[in-house]
Amino acid sequence: MQKIPVQQVDPVALTAADKIHVRLTEGRFQNLRRFISWPLMFAYFALVWVQFDGRPWLLFDFAERHILLFGNTLSWHDLPALAGIMIAGACLLFFLAVGWGRVWCGFACPQSIWTWVFIRIERWTEGRATERAKNEKLPLRSTRLARRVAKHLLWIAFATLTAITFTGYFIPVRELTSSLLTGTASLSVIGWLICMAALTYTNAGLVREKICLHACPYSRFQGVMFDLDTRTVMYDAARGEPRRGAESTQGDCIDCGICVKVCPTGIDIRDGLQAACIDCGACIDACDAVMEKIKKPLGLIRFASEKQLQKAPSPIYRPRLAGYFAVLTLAVSGVVYGLQQPTELLVEIRRDRGALFYSPQQDVVCNRYLIKIENFGNEAQFTLSLESNLDARLEGKTAIATHEMGQWLPYSVCATEPEQARQKIAIAFTGLDVHVTKETTFITAVR
C-alpha cells in the first residue's frame, strides 16, 4: 500500500508558548459544523434535563440496577446493546477516517464543540482575535480586567453546567440540583463535580489545541488509516505556489495567512498534512472568501485526496472503506435488534447456604431457596408456581407486588417420598403478559 508523502514541519511552530487567538470565519463548512454540533450539544443536555412521564430520557441508575431510555426500562443484562453502540461508534470513526480524514474531530468531537463555544464566549467578552492578540501584551487594568474576569466566570459557569449535566446521566439531575442548592449533597458528589468542571474549563478554555495534538489518540493512529484516496483538507501547492503579492501573476496563494489565523490548532495547512489538523474546514471557508475577492477559482484549499491533487484517477470502490461500512451496518443492526428484545423480567434463585435439605416430617424432604425478581416491564404483580414431576409444593408468598421486587424472599419446596437424590425443578413467574420459568436443583440426599 502506498503511503501519503510526509513533509517535515518545524515542531516549534506547533508547540509555541504564544496563545493562539482563533479568528472566527463563516462559510459552508462552518455552517455544516454548526448543523452537526448544535444538535449534538442539544442532545447532551436534553437527554438529562428533559423528562418523559416524570423520568429523564436517559439515566444509568446504579441503585435500581437498570437503565432508563426514552421511557423504556432496560436491565444490566441489556448492556451488550450498549457495547454494540460503542462498536458501531468505533467503526464509524474508522469509516470516516479512511474516507474523509478527521472530520469527526472537526465537526462532532465534544472537545472541538466545547472549544468553539469557549472561543465564542471569549469573543463576546474580549473582542475579536486581533483585538485579543493586541491586548494580550498590555497590562490588565480597568475595562480589560473586567472583560477578562467576565470571560473566566462565564467559562466556569458553562463548565459547571456541563459537569452537572454529565453527572445527571447517573444521578437524577433534579435530585442532584436540589441537593446542591440545599447543601445536602455528599462530599464525593461535590468532589466529582469540581473535578469534572475543572477538566472542562481546562480542556476547552486553557489547553484547547494541545489536547488534539498531544492527548487525543485519534491523531496518532489516523496516519495508519489514511491512504492516497483519503479525502482530507489539502492545500493545492501546484496551483498556489510560488506564493505571490497582490499584484503578482505567479501562484494563486497571496500569502495572506488567514488560513492560519482561523485554524483552531494554529497550524499552517500549506505545510502539508499534519497530525494536529482536525479537518474542521475553517481554512477552506477563509481561503474561499479570499479567492472570491481576488476573482480566482475557489478550492485552493479543499477536501481532496493525494491522487486528486496529482490529477490521478481515484477508484469509486475501495475495499477498506466497504469493509468498515459492512461492519458498521452489522453493528447498528445488532444494536437495533438488541434494543427491540429487552429483558422484561430478571429472576435469580439461590439455595440456602445452610442445610442442603431438611425433613419436617417422615417421608417429606424440603429445600430452602432465596428468590429475587426484578421487573423491567409494565407488570405490577407476579404469581409464583412450581412446575415439577414431583409430588411437591411451594411454600412462601405466591404473589409478589411491585414494592417487594428486588428483595430476596425466602421460599421452601417440599416433596413427598422423592425417588432421586437430585433432580431438576422449575419455578414459574407469571404476570399479565409475561411468563418466565427458572430451573433449580432439588436435593434429597448427599452422594
Automatic annotation (TrEMBL):
Alphabetical keyword list: 4Fe-4S, Electron transport, Iron, Iron-sulfur, Membrane, Metal-binding, Transmembrane, Transmembrane helix, Transport
Keyword Electron transport: yes
GO molecular function: 4 iron, 4 sulfur cluster binding; metal ion binding
Transmembrane stretches, start-end: 35-52, 79-98, 153-171, 183-201, 321-339
Cross-referenced Pfam families: Fer4_18, FixG_C
Listed GO CC annotations: plasma membrane
Top-level taxonomic group: Bacteria
Gene3D superfamilies from the UniProt entry: 3.30.70.20, Immunoglobulins
Domain 4Fe-4S ferredoxin-type, residue spans: 244-272
NCBIfam families tied to this protein: ccoG_rdxA_fixG (TIGR02745)
Protein name (Swiss-Prot/TrEMBL): Cytochrome c oxidase accessory protein CcoG
